[in-house]
Structures are given as C-alpha cells and as structure tokens.
Amino acid sequence: MLTTAKPLFAAGTPLAARIALALAAIALTGVSAPAWSETHQFQMTIEEGEKEIAPGFSAKVWAYNGQVPGPLIRVEEGDTVEVELTNMTTLAHTIHWHGTYQTGTWRNDGVPDVTQQAVQPGDSFTYKFVADKPGSLWYHCHVNVPEHVGLRGMWGPMIVDPKEPVAIENEVTKEAILMFSGWNEDVAQTFGKGGHPTEKLSYFSINGQSFPNTQPLRVKEGDVLRLRLYATGIETAFHLHGHDMLVTHKDGLPLDSPFWADVVDINQGERYDVIVRMDNPGRWIAHDHIEHHVSNNGKVPGGAVMIVEYDSIEDDDWYVWKDKSYDPNFYYTQSLAEGSGLFNHKGFEVRKIENDKSSDRGRSRGRSQSN
Amino acid sequence: MLTTAKPLFAAGTPLAARIALALAAIALTGVSAPAWSETHQFQMTIEEGEKEIAPGFSAKVWAYNGQVPGPLIRVEEGDTVEVELTNMTTLAHTIHWHGTYQTGTWRNDGVPDVTQQAVQPGDSFTYKFVADKPGSLWYHCHVNVPEHVGLRGMWGPMIVDPKEPVAIENEVTKEAILMFSGWNEDVAQTFGKGGHPTEKLSYFSINGQSFPNTQPLRVKEGDVLRLRLYATGIETAFHLHGHDMLVTHKDGLPLDSPFWADVVDINQGERYDVIVRMDNPGRWIAHDHIEHHVSNNGKVPGGAVMIVEYDSIEDDDWYVWKDKSYDPNFYYTQSLAEGSGLFNHKGFEVRKIENDKSSDRGRSRGRSQSN
Amino acid sequence: MLTTAKPLFAAGTPLAARIALALAAIALTGVSAPAWSETHQFQMTIEEGEKEIAPGFSAKVWAYNGQVPGPLIRVEEGDTVEVELTNMTTLAHTIHWHGTYQTGTWRNDGVPDVTQQAVQPGDSFTYKFVADKPGSLWYHCHVNVPEHVGLRGMWGPMIVDPKEPVAIENEVTKEAILMFSGWNEDVAQTFGKGGHPTEKLSYFSINGQSFPNTQPLRVKEGDVLRLRLYATGIETAFHLHGHDMLVTHKDGLPLDSPFWADVVDINQGERYDVIVRMDNPGRWIAHDHIEHHVSNNGKVPGGAVMIVEYDSIEDDDWYVWKDKSYDPNFYYTQSLAEGSGLFNHKGFEVRKIENDKSSDRGRSRGRSQSN
C-alpha cells in the first residue's frame, strides 16, 4: 500500500473516498517534532560573487554559502531544521523554503513584507521549522524574485526523506539533482539589474553550468537511477535519450498514477522525480528539448545539455567529452549517499567579491544533533 | 462511484473497459434539455472602456457587460442558456463558449467565418445552447484572439454545476475564481493594435489586477477551499505557499487520478480546479511562479500575486497589505454562493469610453425562468 | 488488461508492486528482432529547398526526402529499420530517432560528436535499429537543433504499431498526425542563421502550413478519431472545439490513467495521442490556444489553426474555406491506412534548390522485405 507520510489514496478505494481520506489525512499532520526526530542546526551565508556559466560568459551572483547551486540540505521527515542566515551582500534577501508546509511556523516562510521583514545587508535571521513535507523541495530567495532567483543563482535543493517511502524508492541505487535555470548576458555584470518581463535569456544551464561546462552523469548497467528534476529559473522539457523515465513524484509527493515519459515538461517552480532503470549501455545525451535552451548565446552546442555515460563504453577519438575533467559530485550524487546534513560542494564555489558586509565567518558545515 | 454527467471511469474497471465505457457514454449525451432543467435568458453587452490594471498603468479594453473579467455565468448542467449579445464597440466581436459541447448547436460556437459571421458594431446576436458540459468553463471573443483575448480583457467565467458531483465537491465550503492574463504597455492605449507574435507582455494579472491591486483571499481554519484556476491569456505556474493543492478537475471534468501539487502548470485555455484544506493559519502568498510574471513592467513586487489571509492572524505594522481596502467578491466568492444566474460585479467595472455605438441600455442582470 | 509491449501496470495491483513490475518488464526487452518481424530498408535524402508556409511567406528548409514534414515511417514493434541517409545539402546533418530505445545500437542514435560524427555534405550514413518502442515517435536532425529543427523543417513522424494495443486503439476508425512548429521571418531566407535564444517566431504551423494554408480534417458522424499530436518546434496548447479529447498516450506509451481535456498542453518534443468520438456534427475549429500562435506575423486569422468538417454539414456562403482545395493526406490520414512502409506525400514537397551536392537519385519509396 501507499506509505507516504501524507497518505494519498489507498489502491482500490473509490475515488470519492480516496479524496476524502487524503484530505482528512492532512488534518492529522502535527506541528511538533516527534521524539525520534533530529534537530539540525545549519549556518548559511549569502555572499556576492561571480561565476563562470559557459566558456567566456560569467555572471554576478548572490551565492548561498558562496556557491551556486546552494548547498544541499538533506533531512528526514519530521526533523527540525534551524538555519541561521547571515546576509553578507549589499542588498536585502530572505530564504523561502519551497514546498515546506511551515505548519504553525508561517513567519518562517521567507516572504518579505508578508511573513517577515527582509534580512538587511549585514544582518542575520534564524529560520526554524519542522520538515513536515517529504520529497524534492528547494529553497530560494523571495526578494525581487525575477532577478534574485531568475538571474543570480539564489536557489538550492532540500531533500526530505519520507518516513515511509513507496517501494520503488527503495530500489534506487543512484541519485542525481538537476536544477535548470537561465541567464541574461546583458545584465549579468550588474547587481540590481535584470528580471524585466521583456528581457530575453541568452544562456541556459543545469546546476549553474551550460554545456560543455556541465558534467557527465556516470552510471553502470543495472543502476536504478533517480533524477530529481527542478525547473528553478526556466521552464524545461527534459529529454533523456535511450530510456523511458517513470515519473513517480511531483512536487515532492508520489503520484497515484505514475507515467512513462521520454520528455518531462516542468514549469518554473515544479519538481518531478523520475526513476530510470539503466539497462541500455551507451553514451546518451540528455537535454532540455526547448530548442532555444540548447545554445550558448546562439552558439551550438551549448545550453542545458548533459551526457549519461555508461562505464562500459570506451571513448572515441571524436567524442566531444573525450578529455573531460570529471566532477563526481556535480549532480550531488556523492552527497546524496551520505544521509542527513548540509552539504557544500567545492565545485560549485563562486569567485568572491569583497564588500563591507563580507566577514571572515565564511561558510560552515551544518551541525546535526539528536533531539 | 464517479457521477459526472459524462461518466468517466468506474473505479476498479480495467483500463480498456473504462475507456470503452467512457466513449460509449458520450454517445448517450442528448441535445434536448430534460424536463427539470431551466432556461436562463441573459443580456450581455460589449462596451469600450479603460481599466487600471496596476498603479500607474491602464489599458483600453472591450468589456463584456462593461467589466473585466466579464460577468460570472452560473447554471446547472442541462439548463438552457440564451444570451442576447449587443456589440456597443466600434469593431466586430463574438462569444465563444469554451468547453461547451454545443451539441446540435454548432452555429452557436462563436467562431467568425466558421460558425457565424462576426457581430458587427451596433448589432446583436443571440446565442442559445444547452449547458451540456459541467465544470469550470469560460467564454471569450473569438475574433482576433491575440488582441481581443490576449490584451483587451474579453473573457469571463462560466460555471456549470454537475448533476452528480464527485464527493469531494460537496465538502467545499468556499470557492474562488482566478483568471490569469497579461498586458502590453506599448499598445495598451490603442484599440486594434497588439497581439503580434513578437510582442512582449509587461504586466500580469489575476482577475484583471496586478499586485498590489489584487485582493486578499480571506479564509478561516477549517475551510475547504476550491480554486478554479484559468489561464486565460498567459501560461501560469500557480504556487500556493503553506499548503498542497489536490488537483481534482482539468478543463471542467474530474480527473480519474487526482494528484497533489504545490505548483500547478496551466497553459493558455486550460483550467484546473484544486481543492485545499485550510488547516494552517498564517499569511500565505500565492502567485504565478513564472518569474517574469511577478513584476509590474519590471518593478517588484507586482504581477500575478495575491495573499491568502487566515482570519485569526493579526496584521503586523510592516505587512504590505496592512491598510488594504477589501473587496470580498474579487474572486467571485460571494457570487458563487448564490446559485444560478448571471452575476455582474461592481468592482470589475471599467471606465466607459463613449462612441456612437454606445446606448443607454447598459448592463442588465440576467433573468432566469423555469422551463 | 493492459497489453502494451512494455507492460505498464496491471489494474488492481498495488502501486508499489505495479511500479516494480513495470521496471522489471524493461529488463525483459530483448535486442534481437524476433522471428516474425520484418526488416525495412529505406532510403532517405536531405535536400535544400524552399517552402511556402503561409500566403506571402516562404522559408528555406532542409527537407528529408525533399518534403516538410518528412516522410511517414510506419513499422511494427520489433521490426528492424534500416535507413540509408544521403546528405545532399551544403551543411552537416544527422537523424535522431526520438523515442526509440536503440537497445544495443546506441551508435545509431544520431547525436553528433556523442554517438557518431555528423554526416557531411555529399556523404551517406546507414542507421539500423530495432523498433523496440511502440507508439507515436518521430525523427529529426540533431545538429544545431535550434536552427535545423526549430526553423528548417527537419522533422517527420515515425509510428511503431504496438504488438498488443490497448483496447481503445482497436476502435479507432481514422487517424491524423499534427506536427506543430514555428518560423522566423527574419532569417527564413538564410541557411545557417537563426535559432538564437533571443529570436522571436513570427509564423506558426501544423504540418508545415499556417492557416489558411492548413487543411480541413474531414470526418463523418460515428468516426473514432485518433490524433497524434507532436510539439516539434513550438510548445502548443491544442484546443478542439465541440468535443472532449481522451488523452490516452504520452510519448508513445499508454497512460495508466487517461484523462479528458479540451486543451492539451504539449511542450517541445512531447507527443500526446488523443481519441475523440466524432458524435457532434458541425464545423469545429481546432487550434493552438497560445494566443501568439494564431496569426501570421501579426495578421489574423492565421497560424496553427485548422477546421474539423463533418461531411453532413453544407458550406455557407461566408465560410472561410468554402472554396478550399482539399488534400485528403495532409494529416497523413490516407498513408496511415496503408500499413507498414515509408510514405512520401506529394503535397509536402518543397521547391528544390540546386547545389553541387544535389544528385539525380532523388527520393525513393522504401522497400520492405520479410525477415
């Protein structure tokens, strides 16, 4: 039977009853953390920096913990999360925890002038909430979203492991996080510009990098691969060659009726989890199928493109990534194998820009403690 | 069991049989109104006007009954609807009843040069049809759609209550209609301009208003809220904070497999109904997650943004809508509690522009009579 | 029960088990063609040409077999397909077989510098693979996709009939293929230009034609119509008037939970199959509901618009297509009634542009032979 924390529908139950049950279940969700949960205390900064997105193109960013994407936060459903945020930039920011219910803690939702006043330059703010929704969540700034989220890299993944995963989740042997976003060359170098509705994006990226700056996703035959797909700053139509994807989760929660796809359409803010049995050795490109998203300012190949490499396939002389320098944690695959915590990744670090709000506190690995 | 007028699938029936049944059921749909149905006679105008969309930005519109959105039409499945339309503008128009099958009445479908000749300035045309499809439908002009629907506010909601709703519909305690559209400042003041495929929209709205001109949706703990989401003139990725939405209906009909979402992707013309248990008191922003849709010509905050306010939460001094003037019918919530009829709303009225086709007949409340 | 070649879920099976079964089933898919399959040998060219898309607007194209859309390829699941491609243009190209698993044949996937080196002007390349995925597939060039696929018409349909169709597929009496794409007037006349992410499309088409150059889809009452909808070069929100569509397949495979729609949202690369019972005689427009997609460079009516005509309805004097010249194979409806093979269509031929790579081999009908 279905075993999500927020039960959906029991198989075989008539539709009307299933829905009634599902809604009733929401009412049972409690606010307080149960006895077996943990409390995680993390420190996060926002830092001004610059990041190379594609060969010859860099953008100024506001970087959570000095990196784009921001650090991976991974906890278990029911855990308490406490994040002390310090704004080391010259403009105001917040963190919105997208997907989290914030049950009983709405003032931690991160929306300026609605749930809190924005965190001013040099100031700190502590968010505290129970991770009461499982699945593929994310966090991002909620100040001036068209620029801060759309163009400045202010986003990162938060994974909340469900107490009772659906069976297929337990079969997964390898995980990867893919966050899709875009960039505007015209305003890339000027903080406080961009995000205008008539602007056009010129670069498109996965985890902040445009092809060929992206990375291979290396697999072996027999892997059961879970991709957590995030449309953070652009709509994407993700296409994986050579395999169908079973779409199992939307916005963190399991679908009652999973479906097969070779292209997954994801609009901004949505997340889809897909599970793929890696049973077809080869070199397989995977990319946004929106045609304007696969070039670097009009130069092909480029954009939101990556390659899935089976370990049994040898490189050809003409293979575009024959001499590629490999970062095995580019999709947070290594971090995702390590359980709960906050995970920075050196490969995502940006070049710091000093300002009078910068301090020497830098980034620090979060501390977890038992409750 | 499922009890829509056009039966979908009986739970537990094998897929193939369900589909066969579903298609067979279509053939049973009759054209004539059954004995217990009503006939509704409504009068509608199209009037030239101007409407403030955002602070400092107004657009010229063609307004059904002098308002944007157009009046709410609410009838029961099987009722006969008769609308006498009078075109008081200086260009030709029609009404297309989006979603209605128009079984046996295709000449009432409102498509110029295909089902009828367009209604010329000063002329009238009477549409008559049976409301044979239930759910969240809408109406809009079908002449020069890129301008008339895309930029001039020629759309309004039509709700047809199903004879046999699914169970969860009966639990709903509060309803709201949200229609998403966009505006182009460059051509806003010139009738007959705009709608070009290379144009870019600069304002984005819910029910014709951009934040902060939108309104709060006020709820109390325990409400079961049904949102009827319409992508009338823009694609939208609707995100509600603090709650998951159960997506129950698409394009008016119940889904066999409802799903949870925190972002609902809706392309132009589509409608999704979502049901939300209001169990998490707070102030929760709700907005289009397409980043370019949350500013007013580049100025933030703005765009397709609203706030859900629980009545138990007191305003903070810094709350952006602390002194907001409240219109309780902005989402047609009050009208939706009143049963069948045609409902104008004073809050949606536009400033009239006189022309030689204007008359003194003005807008009139529709009359309903028993069949 | 469900009878697809790649079994999805048995009805009534708990979700977890269904998913496990589904994934396990993938592992059973073999590479070798079974004894009862056929081998099809086809020859295809790529030719430089020019095509009228809308009245007064032509675009330079690279045309598979000298036509846009490319020829229909129709085979049965398990058949072997062998295509000898000859590039008669002045730039490099490939064919990617979108959706095909290419199990054991990844070097036939058509991605330049990843699975093969691009096919140079004047050169040939033979693709050979087993059609191991059923359903509505397609093929397109994978070199410089933003221009070649986005603007130059390098796409065509491939239908693989499943060994064990779902029941409703057997009820279908009429089929049609609709491929949606866009065009940019600014670069239409210059090979090697266009596809830049900031470019805006000005023309929108179905099967390479913009209204009124599109064609009626003629039906009779009682037809069970299957539309195979392809978003090849633009996102589309396909709306059919007067009927609901049952969405039965996504990306070639049957949905476990089909759903009703009057607007089908399809992002680039996706395919949806819908089945419609033609039970409502009339003249019904069908079109992309994205408002910017229904004009020809801003002139209305135009764009991705067609009309479904019931044979029992007589033309009115004012009907826009009263004197329309009729092409009964514009939606490949005639070809789709002919079984396996490669089907060129004279109505899709483009005006040839001679260059030094052109030869007299021209296009040839593919040959099929028993295995």
TrEMBL record, chains A, B, C:
GO terms for molecular function: copper ion binding; oxidoreductase activity. The keyword Ligase does not apply. Coiled coil: none annotated. Keywords: Copper, Metal-binding, Oxidoreductase, Signal. It comes from the Bacteria. Residues 50-164, 199-296 form the Plastocyanin-like domain. Residues 1-37 form the signal peptide. SUPFAM superfamilies: Cupredoxins. This is Copper oxidase. It comes from Marinobacter guineae. The lineage of its organism: Bacteria, Pseudomonadati, Pseudomonadota, Gammaproteobacteria, Pseudomonadales.
